[in-house]
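Input (Cation:proton antiporter):
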Amino acid sequence: MSISDYLYYIILPTLAISILIIFVRFLIGPKLSDRVVALDLLLTTGIGIIAVYSILSDQPAFLDIAMIMALIAFLGTVAFAYYLEKREKND
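Output:
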């Protein structure tokens, strides 16, 4: 089994199943923080899928897209933490 077979038959289905499970958590999450963590995890799993696809298709340009998505996910998480901190100070 080559590395491309391993990525295609094991890693991609695992990531796809994890996206489904995370999306269910995103919908069910009782608190806002649960939903934000699930959304961040969805973006991180999407970055993993893009990275695997970049390796399989031999197109390194997709890694730039993955880096931009990681930056956006990080900034979103920081913004949410800032929002929660301000909300707690107002209460």
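The two ends are 58 Å apart (CA to CA).
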